[in-house]
Amino acid sequence: MQHRISGADLAKITSLLATAAIMLLANGLQGTLVPIRGHLEGFSATSLSLQGFAYFTGFVAGCLGCPYLIARSGHIRSFAILTALTTAAVLLLPLIIGGWSWAILRAAIGFCAAGMFSIIEGWLNQQVPNEKRGRIFTTYAAINNLALLGGQYLFTLADRRGDVLFIGCAILTVACLIPIGLTRQTEPQRVALPKLRVVHLLRVSPVGVVGAAIVGLASGAFWILAPIYAEYRGLAGNGVALFMSMVILGGALAQWPVGRLSDFTDRRFVIGCAAAGAAFAGIMLAIPVPFAIGPHAWLLAGGFLYGMTAFPIGSMTNAHLNDHAKHEEMTETAASNLFVYGTAAMVGPLIAAAVVQVGGLSAVFYYTAAMHSCLLLFVIYRTLVRAPIASQERGAFNVPTTQGPGAIHFAPASEQTTEEAKSETAA
């Protein structure tokens, strides 16, 4: 039986969708603005990479610490606290310009981002019935991708050397509070804190855990250095926003068809193919322009291909993890997957900084190509030593909810009922 999304369903989640869209507009703007402004201020690639390390350090700390804040203060008040902290940090960026000060502020922003996304997506997950969850989260993902693209457009509206774009980012962050503050929906129950069981998951699904780590190592470096690289290759001004838009657009267009394909075959095969494509796209972006193709067209095509191949990998490895997880382990699986990703994304910029020191800015994409090649080799090895899971035992693919720096798919994995949550809390 088909379960359509009704007007009542949409009414329940409209405020959450609006909050997410505004937040992703700010996130998309900030993700491109901060590294470009840092580069203009004279920060080296190493300094920018250290700031990326700080951001993801804060993000992992948020994954661990924000559940305690939510359990103490509730969803709406916790969201208000994190929004206020983010706004203050964003406004301080153009006022206190320095490598270490920006690293501290970026860590604070990363901490808040983890909490804000977990609040929105955990609340959204509790508002929708299981049989409509896939369609609801697909809608949510589409809105988020459009918002990220919109953030790239906002980047073109003012001089990146001034303070206007930072102020605009802060205004958008504060505006997140309006729809979620006006909602009539009941705040979710405060559920038990999930446990992290990374070693257990590694035994259950090696490809899922290693895939999440590889995606973190590659994307942690990509989001920090890709805007700088685009400018280095001659895409000055609005060209940087165009390049980042092409990457996001490629990822958005590929997510659904690639994910659905993985529902009908061994998911590891599709992960391997995507990893091979991402490795090729990385080399394509790194090498000098061949034959008579214009340099900008080649760079934009490489960015589009990179988004199409690299972005779906995280979603498919997450789905592969959930294929092997028991129903009662879904929440722990989502939390552990996010922790693995965030920890790897912390390390990724540091490794990339060392690589760039030796090989120049182009080496950042040789680095991402190497990471995806390692994933491809590991997937090939695992397919040789372990048979695929039966198709009837696989869950349907869920399009990831978010993309962008730190906007990692907090997968709609928790399907606890209120009574289950209460009993777990009591235990």
> What average pLDDT do the residues reach?
81
Q: Which residue ranges are poorly predicted, with pLDDT under 50 across at least 5 consecutive positions?
A: 406-427
Radius of gyration: 20 Å
- Elements, N to C (H/E): HHHHHHHHHHHHHHH
- Tell me the distance between the termini: 37 Å
Q: Describe the global form.
A: globular
Give the amount of beta strand, in percent.
under 5%
Written account of the structure:
The structure is a single chain. α2 runs antiparallel to α13, α3 (75-92) packs antiparallel against α6 and α10 (238-263) packs parallel to α12. The protein has 427 residues and is mainly alpha-helical. 54% of the residues are buried. The longest helix is centred in the N-terminal third of the chain and has 34 residues, at 7-40. The protein is built from 15 helices and no strands. The chain has a single domain (10-414), classed as MFS general substrate transporter like domains (Growth Hormone, Chain: A), CATH 1.20.1250. The radius of gyration is 20 Å and the shape is globular. The protein has helices spanning 7-40, 45-73, 75-92, 99-127, 133-154, 164-175, 177-182, 198-204, 206-232, 238-263, 267-286, 295-324, 330-359, 363-385, 418-426.
Summarize this, please?
This protein is mainly α and 427 residues long. 75% of the residues lie in helices and 0% in strands. The protein is globular.
Topology:
Layout: H1 7-40, H2 45-73, H3 75-92, H4 99-127, H5 133-154, H6 164-175, H7 177-182, H8 198-204, H9 206-232, H10 238-263, H11 267-286, H12 295-324, H13 330-359, H14 363-385, H15 418-426
